[in-house]
């Protein structure tokens, strides 16, 4: 079949659904494509609460957050295509996708990429040892337990204290799987403080900071995990080895933005966008974890809405930025989004500092913006709102952080 | 009945060769998967045949095997990419090795080679270490997926009336007149007129069961890194100059677009030790970076693994008749994969027909051409569209990284896949950069639905490699 539309949204998670909603609201014909049978992405398996506090001003579970968005979509003319896998996006604004009915083409005016992220796999860390069953990414373990009612372990060690790792520690514990600890290579937890409290301390699950897995062992199925302490350069400290007898290792060692199948726009490694979510290809917009990995779905949906709005305006020839101001990473900034600013529009800047601070001062110069952040850590994103600054005639602004003495 | 012990690439190709004459061929595989021993854990290279010790059985069979891969590729529908290979000299000392290789190539009758100077070499391989001086270039060298060859060869045997039985570990042999009675660990037994022992690492132990002595086999471990497809490192296989012991640590473009770096070569005690080690992985990084300095071991790694080669003191293949109608095919170390099709012919045409005087007649009803389940994403859209109209599963994507549809997975299960690794090696699903994070729970479900196995019974590979313990709660 051949389709024609104003805006295609690729990905039906928290970002894509919000993008489709906003594009529709701004007068565009919208097709939303999701490769799974159901929309929602990872929200479907995140049955814990903590979603929607910023976006809906309500504390929801993942499925509830999804349902709320889904209901908003139900009252629109958005065409939703599920179980549809996009094979190709070309520069002539054509997409090819496959589903159980065949191979189809879509001609569009604008595209929103909301393809999310994938989990970094333990295998890519090249940890020595046996090749055994029983090593799962946190997402896979979560899918088995929450969606398929399958228990993949009797006892487990968790590596990586990102939010998914912390949430899974609690989940496994509550389902009767003995969680012997969470191992984190950094000297501070990778996830939100509220999750450290609610998922580990509340259940007496030990957190081993500055520790790393050095070896996995087992005969066909995992039986032992070797862990050692590391110094500030992440080098193993001799004679600090601990052995955990577990039959599962659950890994939460980072997310990697997914940009497939778009190969021809600027990435690093996710899509690099402006404050209006425009990429280096002016008809392609991107939002959510396929740009940078966000702390909360609330931010992802907010970004998605923005991307949907500007994509809709672009498709109706109502949005053409005259100028793009580069946002430069200054001192102690690790992650920064967006990387460009259309100074006619407002900006929500997201950043991660590159180390921990007791009291950090974050500045945006030469705009003269200064913010004080107590206990700033790389694992908690910092948000800065910037008003339009077209009259200032700038080519570049710089964001940096420093410790306040 | 003709019994072939072992379903590795050599065993399965021998079984296929015999099957061209005799229908009643049985392959007995000790493991729970086809080609999952030595065949699975090596570089997958079809060597040029220029460098084996002249006069050895290796040199006799390697070059012949290389040539036979055109036929294998066509008849078994397996991919063989003749990407060529360079043996690269990085300094004055190593130049000597290039001269020696040329001498050997001449002695081995290999004409397909060129000595390339620095400019030509770097033009062909721009990512190579810039201090490269010369290369011994062999355009007929290539890569394949050895387990795929084994799987297609065993499929050929099944299509032509033979049997392929897994989990059949040979534990005892009794001689009965001119025949052998074979006893397996599971309690079953079979009577065979002729036995071919192709038990890889265990060929020496199997030979003993027949009362025969073949050179003692010791396992030599090779550790590897598998790197992703998104960075281009090399067009051809890149070798360092060889040492007396090994061909060294290489950089290999794999059939599906990724790269292998490795292997190491260290003797280990256990024939089951497939663990990677800190030292081994470090050695691979250091040595392969010397050849291709752009290899990105921090961000482009998919996985690491190790394989074992069956090495003997003699460093040559030992392929001969034992006491009675049994042939031992042992010591099949490098370049065993390359030689495999030639070994199959050597066993059938020379050992069986000439040495054992068994007269064989080609079968009239033999089917030579074996089709493979097509990888739909590689087909043109019109073809794919037609397949979807017949079977909607062909339009459901399961593995997002390598783009494998539900139809392809179900076909693999129809062809005998029962474990996650069976499906992985038959289809490449879960082989990509996400290593199955998106598709493995789905594949487990599909195996369970299609075979009636409970999720708890679906294994990663061998017995004991369980994935699911139980239901979370009874419904």
**CATH fold name of the largest domain in chain B:** FAD/NAD(P)-binding domain
Which spans of chain A have pLDDT < 50 for at least 5 consecutive residues? none
Shape of chain B: globular
Q: What percentage of amino acids of chain A are in beta strands?
A: 35-45%
The largest β sheet of chain B comes out as: 6 strands, mixed
Radius of gyration of chain B from CA coordinates: 22 Å
Q: Provide the helix percentage of chain A.
A: 10-25%
Q: What does the average pLDDT of chain A come to?
A: 96
Distance between the termini of chain A: 64 Å
Describe the structure.
The complex is a heterodimer of chains A (405) and B (475). With 405 residues, chain A is of the alpha/beta class. Chain A has three domains: 1-119 and 254-320, FAD/NAD(P)-binding domain (3-Layer(bba) Sandwich), CATH 3.50.50.60; 121-251, 3-Layer(bba) Sandwich (FAD/NAD(P)-binding domain), CATH 3.50.50.60; 323-404, Immunoglobulin-like (Sandwich), CATH 2.60.40. Chain A contains six helices and 30 strands. Chain A has helices at 14-25, 62-74, 138-147, 163-174, 193-200, 297-315; strands spanning 2-4, 7-10, 30-33, 49-51, 60-61, 79-81, 85-90, 94-99, 102-107, 110-113, 117-119, 135-137, 150-151, 155-159, 178-183, 207-208, 211-219, 221-229, 242-245, 248-251, 255-257, 284-286, 325-329, 333-337, 340-341, 347-353, 357-365, 369-376, 382-386, 396-403. In chain A, the strands form eight sheets. A five-stranded parallel beta sheet of chain A has the order 6-3-2-10-22, covered by helices on one side. In chain A, strands 12-20-14-15-16 form a five-stranded parallel beta sheet. The radius of gyration of chain A is 22 Å and the shape is globular. The mean pLDDT of chain A is 96. In chain B, a hairpin with a 4-residue loop joins β20 and β21 (326-330). Chain B has 475 residues and is an alpha+beta fold. Chain B is built from twelve helices and 24 strands. In chain B, α1 (9-19) runs parallel beside α5, α1 (9-19) runs parallel beside α8 (336-355) and α10 (406-414) packs across α12. Chain B has three domains: 1-79 and 142-215 and 311-371, FAD/NAD(P)-binding domain (3-Layer(bba) Sandwich), CATH 3.50.50.60; 84-138 and 217-309, D-Amino Acid Oxidase, Chain A, domain 2; 379-455, Arc Repressor Mutant, subunit A. Chains A and B meet through β8, α3, β13 and β17 of A and α7, β19, α9, α12 and β24 of B.
């Amino acid at each position: 079949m051949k389709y024609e539309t104003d805006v295609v949204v690729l990905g039906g998670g928290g970002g894509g659904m919000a993008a489709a909603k906003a594009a529709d609201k701004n007068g565009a014909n919208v097709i939303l494509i999701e490769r799974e049978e159901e929309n929602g992405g990872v929200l479907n398996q995140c049955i814990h609460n903590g979603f929607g506090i910023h976006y809906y001003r309500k504390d929801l579970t993942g499925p509830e957050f999804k349902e709320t968005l889904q209901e908003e979509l139900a009252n629109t003319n958005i065409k939703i295509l599920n179980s549809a896998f996009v094979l190709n996006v070309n520069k002539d604004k054509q997409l090819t996708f496959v589903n159980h009915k065949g191979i189809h083409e879509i001609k569009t005016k604008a595209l929103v990429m909301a393809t999310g992220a994938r989990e970094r796999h333990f295998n890519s860390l090249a940890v020595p040892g046996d090749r055994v069953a029983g090593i799962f990414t946190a997402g896979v373990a979560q899918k088995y337990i929450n969606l398929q009612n399958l228990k993949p372990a009797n006892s487990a060690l968790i590596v990586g204290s990102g939010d998914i790792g912390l949430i899974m520690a609690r989940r496994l514990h509550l389902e009767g799987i003995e969680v012997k600890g969470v191992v984190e290579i950094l000297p501070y937890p990778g996830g939100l403080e509220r999750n450290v409290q609610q998922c580990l301390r509340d259940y007496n699950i030990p957190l081993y900071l500055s520790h790393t897995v050095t070896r996995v062992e087992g005969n066909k199925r995992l039986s032992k995990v070797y862990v050692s302490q590391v110094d500030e350069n992440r080098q193993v400290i001799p004679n600090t080895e601990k052995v955990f007898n577990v039959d599962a290792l659950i890994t939460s060692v980072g997310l990697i933005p997914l940009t497939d199948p778009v190969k021809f726009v600027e990435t690093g490694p996710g899509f690099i966008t402006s404050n209006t979510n425009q990429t280096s290809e002016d008809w392609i917009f991107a939002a959510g974890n396929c740009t940078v990995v966000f702390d909360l779905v609330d931010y992802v949906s907010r970004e998605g809405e923005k991307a949907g709005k500007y994509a809709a305006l672009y498709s109706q020839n109502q949005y053409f930025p005259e100028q793009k101001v580069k946002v430069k990473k200054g001192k102690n900034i690790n992650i920064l989004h967006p990387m460009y600013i259309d100074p006619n529009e407002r900006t929500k800047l997201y950043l991660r500092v590159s180390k921990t601070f007791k009291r950090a001062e974050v500045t945006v110069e030469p705009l003269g913006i200064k913010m004080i952040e107590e206990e700033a850590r790389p694992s908690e994103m910092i948000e800065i709102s910037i008003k339009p600054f077209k009259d200032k005639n700038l080519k570049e602004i710089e964001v940096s952080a420093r410790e306040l003495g | 009945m003709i019994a072939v012990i072992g379903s590795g690439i050599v065993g399965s190709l021998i079984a296929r060769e015999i099957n061209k004459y005799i229908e009643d061929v049985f392959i007995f595989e000790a493991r729970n998967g086809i080609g999952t021993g030595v065949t699975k854990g090596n570089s997958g290279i079809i060597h040029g045949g220029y460098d084996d010790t002249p006069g050895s059985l290796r040199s006799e069979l390697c070059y012949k095997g290389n040539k036979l891969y055109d036929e294998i590729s066509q008849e078994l529908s397996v991919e063989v990419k003749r990407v060529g290979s360079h043996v690269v000299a990085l300094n004055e000392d190593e130049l000597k090795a290039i001269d020696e290789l040329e001498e050997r190539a001449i002695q081995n009758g290999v004409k397909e080679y060129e000595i390339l100077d620095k400019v030509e070499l770097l033009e062909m391989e721009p990512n190579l270490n810039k201090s490269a001086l010369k290369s011994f270039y062999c355009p007929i060298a290539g890569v394949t997926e050895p387990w795929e060859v084994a799987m297609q060869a065993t499929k050929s045997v099944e299509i032509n009336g033979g049997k392929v039985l897994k989990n059949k570990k040979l534990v005892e042999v009794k001689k009965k007149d001119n025949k052998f009675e074979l006893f397996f660990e599971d309690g079953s037994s079979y009577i065979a007129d002729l036995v071919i022992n192709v038990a890889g690492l265990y060929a020496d132990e199997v030979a003993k069961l027949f009362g025969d002595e073949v050179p003692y086999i010791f396992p030599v471990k090779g550790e590897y890194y598998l790197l992703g497809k998104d960075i281009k490192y090399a067009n051809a296989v890149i070798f360092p100059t060889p040492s007396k012991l090994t061909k060294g640590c290489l950089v290999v473009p794999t059939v599906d677009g990724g790269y292998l770096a490795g292997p190491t070569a260290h003797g280990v005690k256990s024939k089951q030790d497939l663990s990677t080690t800190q030292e081994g992985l470090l050695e691979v990084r250091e040595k392969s970076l010397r050849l291709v300095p752009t290899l990105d071991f921090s961000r482009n790694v998919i996985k690491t693994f190790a394989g074992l080669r069956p090495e003997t003191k003699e460093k040559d293949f030992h392929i001969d008749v034992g006491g009675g109608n049994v042939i031992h095919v042992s010591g099949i170390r490098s370049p065993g994969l390359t030689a495999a099709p030639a070994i199959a012919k050597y066993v059938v045409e020379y050992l069986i027909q000439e040495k054992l005087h068994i007269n064989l007649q080609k079968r009239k009803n033999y089917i030579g051409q074996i089709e493979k389940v097509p990888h739909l994403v590689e087909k043109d859209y019109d073809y794919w569209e037609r397949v979807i109209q017949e079977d909607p599963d062909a339009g459901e994507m399961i593995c997002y990284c390598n783009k494998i549809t539900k139809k392809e997975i179900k076909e693999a299960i129809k062809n005998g896949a029962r474990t996650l690794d069976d499906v992985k090696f038959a289809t490449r699903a879960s082989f990509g950069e996400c290593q199955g994070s998106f598709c493995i729970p789905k594949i487990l479900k599909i195996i369970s639905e299609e075979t009636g196995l409970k999720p708890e019974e679906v294994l990663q590979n061998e017995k004991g490699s369980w994935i699911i313990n139980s239901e979370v709660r009874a419904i």
